[in-house]
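Tutorial handout. Part one gives the primary structure; part two gives the three-dimensional structure as tokens.
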Amino acid sequence: MKAIRVAAFGGPEVLKVEDVPDPRPQAGEVLVRVKAAGVNPYDTYMRSGNYGAANPTLPYTPGSDAAGVVEAAGSGVDLGPGARVYTARTLTGAYAELALCRRSQVHPLPEAVSFAQGAGIWVPCGTAYRALFQIARPRPGETVLVHGASGGVGLAAVQLARAAGLVVIGTAGSDEGLELVRREGAHHAVDHRDPQYLQQIRDLTGGAGADLILEMLANVNLGHDLTLLAPRGRVVVIGSRGSVEVNPRELMSRDASVVGMLLWRVSEAEAAEIHAGLQAALGDGTLRPVVAVELPLASAPEAHRRVMAPGARGKIVLVP
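Part two.
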């Protein structure tokens, strides 16, 4: 089979298409014929060797999110060939024609969800679900600010928050992104390129501030976020690309809190809860993964450049 392989940490150019042996499933394992693989920012951190203790052993095939059909299964597996599935991690990597997975890493893909959409379920939608419902635990009627709402995680958060009865404010950095955020359910969309965008957010909340902020780029926004919080408000840090200076008094004066999250730290019970919630939301149309672009597998370097560029408008997907 063909797969993207990384033999040395570095820039996007280290992503190479190679011919590798087809994996063979053992007991409790599933071999998935990949129809689409999702590209996530954390893939680029691993590729560059900047993911700390989580850096993979070289050489490796990137990717945790894929969608496709079961090619074969080992003993003790209740999925037959042809079953539509999406993955939440794999054993051999998702940027490939075939991906070997544990049974626990494979989940049913509803018929109404395309393979390209299925490649954008676990990391983006699972992150949004965990941030909202397992960490922030919002109440209907509260106001949530989704910073970076036009990306994969942001759009999932907008859709889920709107369905949960929250007042949703989303930010984006392009006219197309702002329109997408509105279309996917945000009550208000704010251009974070506008020098007055912070005041616009305050005005939209009537000066009360946001009860919850989902932050995708904390190293840029966290200091400002603290000034936008309502009393007892909370910020969930989903993404950051560096350090940031904040004024703790902004938290103290509001009895507010900041909490970080990493999807890879979920327990088995928490993961099961997330998948149950995602399955329900996908099944009734509440959750609709948005695909920005589909690229061939050999364009993995271009996909890695795009996923880190500003102006996201949904999910980037590789098609073997």
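Part three, for discussion. The chain has a mean pLDDT of 96. The CA atoms of residues 173 and 192 lie 6 Å apart.
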